[in-house]
Amino acid sequence: MEAxxxxxxxxxxxxxxxxxxxxxxxxxxxxxAEAIARxxxxxxxxxxxxxxxxxxxxxxxxxxxxxxxxILLGIIIxxxxxxxxxxxxxxxxxxxxxxxxxxxxxxxxxxPWWITGFIWDGVYLALAWVVSVMLPPMAIFFPAFTFxxxxxxxxxxxxNLDWLFKKAGAHGKQSLTMAMGFGxxxxxxxxxxxxxxxxxxxxxxxxxNFVPCNGRFPTLIMIATVFVAAAxxxxxxxxxxxxxxxxxxxxxxxxxFLMSWLLSRTVLKGEASAFxxxxxxxxxxxxxxxxxxxILDRTIFVLWRAMQTAAPAGAIxxxxxxxxxxDSNLARVIADWLNPFGLLLxxxxxxxxxxxxxxxxxxIVVPTMMMVYMGTGTMINGPGTSAGIFDLLVNGNGWTMxxxxxxxxxxxxxxxCATTILTIYRETKSYKWTVISVLITLGTAxxxxxxxxxxARLMGWV
Amino acid sequence: xxxKKLALPTEHCETCPAFxxxxxxxxxxxxxxxxxxxxxxxxTGKSTLFNALTGLKQHTGNWPGKxxxxxxxxxxxxxxRYKLVDLPGTYSLLSASQDExxxxxxxxxxxxxxxxxVTDATALxxxxxxxxQVMEITDHVVVAINLMDEAKRKGLEVDARSLSRDLGxxxxxxxxxxxxxxxxxxxxxxxxxNGDIITKPLRVQGTPEFQRAVRELAPMIESMAPGIPNARxxxxxxxxxxxxxxQALVSGELAQRVARQAQADxxxxxxxxxxxxx
Lengths: 462, 278
Description:
The structure holds two protein chains of two kinds.
Chain A: H1 2-16, H2 21-40, E1 41-43, H3 51-59, H4 65-108, H5 113-151, H6 154-167, H7 174-183, H8 185-191, H9 198-207, H10 217-228, H11 237-265, H12 287-322, E2 324-325, E3 328-329, H13 330-344, H14 349-357, H15 365-374, H16 386-397, H17 401-413, H18 418-428, H19 431-458
Antiparallel strand pairs in A: 2-3
Helix pairs in contact in A: 4-5, 4-11, 5-10, 5-12, 5-15, 6-7, 7-8, 8-18, 9-11, 9-19, 10-11, 10-16, 10-17, 12-15, 13-14, 14-15, 17-19, 18-19
Chain B: H1 11-15, H2 17-21, E1 22-26, E2 34-40, H3 46-54, E3 71-77, E4 80-86, H4 98-109, E5 114-120, H5 124-137, E6 141-146, H6 148-153, E7 156-158, H7 160-167, E8 171-173, H8 182-194, H9 208-224, H10 231-240, H11 243-250, H12 253-262, H13 270-275
Parallel strand pairs in B: 2-4, 2-5, 5-6, 6-8
Antiparallel strand pairs in B: 1-3, 3-4
Helix pairs in contact in B: 9-10
């Protein structure tokens, strides 16, 4: 065949060349490039050339590097928590008032009860929840994150965390894909393409879900604010809540390392490969552009996707809650059926039901949960306030601190959303690894929550 | 709104005729006359330039590796419609990682009418390696020296003429973030495609034996896959023992790729750039 003839010819011709001819060529390529660059670029004066280096020496120093990262993470999350809290309540007030008004209007014009219920207590309520719970944190988190990204901080994070990933047998660039996961795990999975080695790329894909994405942050923030921070004085609320969320994020990063380590010691054996990563110069972020892309593009895009799943989810919950079975309803029956298993994990049946309904998008976990709970009890202080939520959950539905902590752990560790699962399949082209990615995360979530619940019960805390 | 026209137009833009010659076409690239590829090292601002030209909002970020998929968009300049393909940043075209392969395959088989290699004015030497590798593959190269503002801030003066003379292809200084120099760049691209600018890319010659080997091998590849545009480059890769190129040759994939990528509409995918949002 002709192709083989060409290969054979190439083989013979290679024999006529001096060994290392390619090195010669590469060398002359480099020296040529150097000469050309020397002719074309002239330093005018040696001004602030080493300013970047000074900053880098600080933010990538072995001592200050990690604390600075933690502080930046803390600042971003604190900004998100404290800013979102007020805005969420205000937004909820408005949106729920609109709901009341709409319901009243429908009643007034004599619409059938099931149309009024389906639209206003089902679809609209779910949408109102999603928007009020999600929009404020995203509108703060995305610009703040994009700011650091545009500044050029992410490669420094990779630099700081490299030794940890290496210890775990994973690729140092995994910290970049992990960072992208905070925005969206599906995007994080796609970003793993920067990792050359298939083994390490697979590790990065399988563990990406252990950092909470924007769809899960609102759940963490809400629980941290309503439960953990409520135990402290109001002045400290936002700090305690932010600290809690940072803690949860760190647990997630810990699991990323742990799981990477386990994988690289078992099914994905191998050594971490070396790589070079440029530390790009710091660039002044363009604030107008950041606001534009992160709010209009990312925030609205993600919110729109969440709303698309929230509307049908709201409809399903309403239907489930309005199909009567004996003296109960279908949502309750399913929740009760799931309850023993939920309790085993320190959760309850409603939470598990919410997670099942929220498989398409994690964003709607809280709305789903609240709607099922509200089907059985009414809120005293209005749904928008922390006190109202606290009252509904604790007094109405028997939540404890264990439920709150385990819900956060479960939110952190459980299976990826449908979009991410689909992306994992598209990137790995393998059913096997897609299924494994779900089993690993779900298994970890079950195991960890089961252990915490058992431990807390053993110690007699709940 | 002026924002729609160009990423961040300065006030001079309004009075400049070029401002009105450029029309961003976003995703409307179904009918285009020319294909232009954007290559370059990671983090040199390819996506920023892409956004400025197309009006699209491919995500940009200051870290190497931000763009891992191929994004496509369109712009119209002086009445000619161009399809612009934003390639992942690569340091070389020789390596095996997936993002580098995306870039290499497109420059190699996609046969763009022109490839703009975006370079970082503050790190020109390192960037030139890729420029020279791209020039090994194709004559139709324009070098965009981006981040001129940053170079100025760092006290560097870049002589585009000297660079252009040495490389044998046009070199245009730009600042993609502000839109400075973009008009000249587009005019240069148009002239190059029209044949008003003839390039004579600098190519590393190597030893006489090497040159002879390439001269013998290249025609064989050409006769096997007629229409293949880069026989010389492939010959060099084969002499080097590049197993991927060898495989592609034996399996017939090479010929297939020539056919596939040459198809007028290379699977333009809005979906990809939407789902690839990073």
